[in-house]
Design a protein that fits this description.
Strand order of the largest sheet: 1-2-3-4-5-6-7-10
Number of strands: 10
Order of helices and strands: EHEHHEHHEHHEHEHHEEEHEH
Distance between the termini: 10 Å
Structural class: alpha/beta
Strand content: 15-25%
Shape: globular
Length: 253
């Protein structure tokens, strides 16, 4: 059975995480994914304690999201965190709207910037890559899309593919999975509600309870050497429901 992880950003409004960890382990999840705010103010002792607490209940944190600012300006701190938590993969997750390039050259340069920022991670033996949202698939003036140029500018970047955001960006996930099949290291497993539904959850749905063809997509993804599958929901209004229904659906794909 394919291991399943859980992006802790999904539970940011339901802390303490110690309680969330227990719920995830009881439901059958094997991994969790960290995000920026989780690492704030964690000294070495706290990091070691977090790692041991996760291990004690049967969870690991092999992947983490780190801001571009932290990756560029505090690489030593990133590596301290990845080492303490025994991570194998680091992903840069976002770019603020005002910082997004407007041209093909700009996106290619951004890919090169990521490539440079990831060098210390790769030198430490970690997978390093980009986690997409929808804006990477919005057409530029010449009709091309940023994702193409970002990945060209960063030729060794891995990709944590957020399938639902690809769809929200108006793109065909199967096309992009095929295009970068050798660079997909992790996949965010999330779902999109029917139009007009779940508006209080920003239109997202529990995995398997929305419009994304996960059963079909898993048939495409499973043959690929993907290390991690990670459930995410950006704004759930019931964390227990999300945890329990998503893993039940995933295990049926």
């Amino acid at each position: 059975m394919t291991k399943l992880g859980f992006q802790l950003y999904s539970a940011r409004n339901y802390q303490p995480f110690s309680t969330i960890f227990k719920k995830l382990a009881a439901a059958g999840y094997a991994e969790v994914e960290g995000y920026g705010a989780l690492y704030d103010d964690l000294d070495q002792a706290a990091l070691d304690r977090l790692s041991s607490d996760l291990a004690a209940i049967g969870l690991a944190m092999p992947t983490g999201h780190f801001s571009l600012n932290m990756l560029e300006n505090e690489p030593e701190r990133v590596l301290e965190i990845t080492s303490a938590l025994k991570m194998d993969s680091v992903f840069c997750p976002f770019l603020m709207p005002d910082d997004r390039p407007k041209t093909t050259e700009g996106w290619r340069d951004f890919g090169a910037r990521l490539e440079k920022a990831g060098a210390p991670m790769r030198d430490a033996g970690l997978v390093f890559g980009w986690h997409n949202h929808d804006f990477e698939f919005a057409a530029l003036e010449d009709g091309s899309v940023p994702m193409t140029h970002l990945m060209e500018g960063g030729p060794t970047l891995a990709w944590e593919a957020d399938i639902a955001w690809i769809i929200r960006g108006g793109a065909d996930p199967r096309h992009w999975i095929e295009t970068y099949s050798d660079r997909i290291s992790a996949v965010h497993v999330k779902d999109i509600a029917e139009p007009g539904e779940n508006e209080d959850e920003d239109g997202w749905a529990d995995v398997g309870h929305g419009t994304v063809d996960w059963k079909g997509l898993m048939g495409v993804l499973k043959p690929l050497p993907i290390r991690h599958y990670i459930v995410e929901h950006d704004n759930p209004n019931d964390i227990d429901r999300l945890i329990e229904r998503s893993i039940a659906s995933f295990q049926s794909f």
